């Protein structure tokens, strides 16, 4: 270098050929540009520059410099970089790998630094116009240099770079978080125990946490100097953040619904930002003045760094929300199942969902979760209802527009429609009978006077500013969001689209309850009916009111008749205390008709009661339903007495017959009672269980007067299954439908007689046409009709061939 | 063995002792009530005419009130007289 300068000087003073001078000036300037350490004075350089400018060579300087950079990069720097990075193939220590990474980058910087400062100098000259230079200035020149560097260096980077960077960042991250957050070294896989440093994961005495942090600082500076941060780090940082958030969420939030995680994560993310601040610290003035404060972006004041951080903060939030939503969507079914407890989770999810546009995903996943976990035959209807109710409650928190609720629960509603006992379960829930859906009863008694009709009232007059359009995934139905009810009871009732079914069912349930009651105590039923009246409207509950009134009337009639009886002399009194529930048959649901011959004494008592009733209410009479009601009785045996047994009339009738004769066969009893043998057999089980009767042999039963052998017997009969769960007195829905369909049989027969043969669809549409008056046909779907016709076919009352029904030829 | 019945609670339904099912005026069942009533039985009784036709009391009264000239049984067109 010295020599060159001398040469140049001599050239200038001696003034030999100008070519020589120009060459010297070129040498001097280029040397000055690429080797900043050289000792030339600025003045000399400027002179040479002026000479070059004079000869019109100034503009070539930039081109030359970039060209040289490019050649140097591709010939030596880049290969050296990659081989340096790959070199410690067999090194196992993470710490060494980190330092290799840093060294490689440091070498890279060292190699490139001369060019960068040269470019800067040239740029400054260009700006100042020294030696007639003009050009884009330092920034643009460097920009082009960096582009070249990036292009050559990272054109096809081997995976090793990404791996190393990722490893390095993960390590420094955990070190940083460990130092910042104390116990929160989420990265430490083996925990603080076992003598390992939670930060760097090696034994405490070999801890290199501080070293790692220093390395991070250097690394960040080098990258920012080379403007490679974005290219080298972004991907690694993104994947680290993604992984860490996921990991942390997996550890902390999965399965944990009773606590909100938003704030916690917010704080954590802020700490992570501190680390990011280190990664993206772009401090330009050397390694000298690095204070802790310099890592905080705002203090640093450098515009790009803080905006980069701002960007990362957004990214992180986005990550967080997305990961959180993903996880919660997966768990949504469980969240719904535990709803009132899982409210915080729902609120978090709501917050995040608003930011991630994953509603569609949520809907699909929730729907399929319902279908796979809830809607199959193994799940009890009341459980489905319970989940549905929770879902209503949870989803209306999640989405006040109710669209998610409406769409996601569609399968449930559809499925519930196919379950036979849905209505019964809902009604049982409403009346507080079902232990499973207790919510319904409380929901009902909350007594929102939101009757179903109320929703019709149009409140269009509301403030138009408040208008919130439906989300785009709303089902396009004619009911607007106004009508999308969130009321649990309305939703349940609307499963069938008509409240009549519910009211009929409620009537049946009410009838059951009233008939099983002995003491005319109807306070609770009255309350329920009043509450239901608020919901369904007065007119719909009219029948139920009459039923309740019947109960009150019956009590009055009973006490009246009792009074009359008490006036009679001892021997005129009826032999048994009979009270009655007198029904207005038109208002009660159809009661099951069963035949039962009661013992003569009971019949006489009933006749006497009827006579008194006829006297009390002119022109009215009673018809008894012998199988309904209940009997309280004592059974006195030789060595023991069973007192205060409450049984059904048929049980009472059976045991009373055993008074006359201590041994009966099944046939005899069946004949005597006018009841099928199977039923008698079933009913006998109760008395066997009580140890009163014993099956001796082949359908012969006798009284066990002596209880000595009772225990043995007890054990023997335990196995007899008694179906003493309360049989419903009212005909079930399907039976009623059956009856209604039976009505059509006459029509169908007539049609087939006239038209010879018809398809199923034709029969259905004809029925619709002819019998359009009642609500029955519109409710009857074609499948039901088909099932009905199939049964007729089995009973040989119809013939079907190739989808056409016809009547069988009458002989 | 002896069975002592303490209490027998039976169930029965009441009905009018009438020769028809439905009221000839409103076509509603006698055991129900006329369209204006809510509660059957005592609150919506039947009445018999001397022609032995019977109706809901409210129905026949409404009918009789609407007849300006002569009060006839709507079924048999005989003069309507309440059966004592």
Question: Gist?
Answer:
The complex is a heterodimer of chains A (811) and B (84). Chain A contains 32 helices and 9 strands.
Mind explaining what this structure looks like?
- The complex is a heterodimer of chains A (811) and B (84).
- Chain A is built from 32 helices and 9 strands.
- The radius of gyration of chain A is 46 Å and the shape is elongated.
- In chain A, helix 10 packs antiparallel against helix 12 and helix 25 (649-660) packs across helix 27.
- Chain A is mostly helical and 811 residues long.
- In chain A, the strands form 3 sheets. In chain A, strands 4-6-5 form a 3-stranded antiparallel sheet.
- Chain B is of the alpha+beta class and 84 residues long.
- Chain B has a single domain, classed as 2-Layer Sandwich (Herpes Virus-1), CATH 3.30.40.10.
- The N and C termini of chain B lie far apart (53 Å).
- Classes of the chains: A mainly alpha (811), B alpha+beta (84).
- Chain A binds chain B through residues 515, 518, 542, 545-546, 549, 553, 576-588, 591, 602, 605-606, 609-610, 613, 617, 619-626, 628-638, 644, 649, 652, 655-656, 658-659, 662, 692, 703, 705, and chain B through 1-18, 29, 31-32, 38-42, 46, 48.
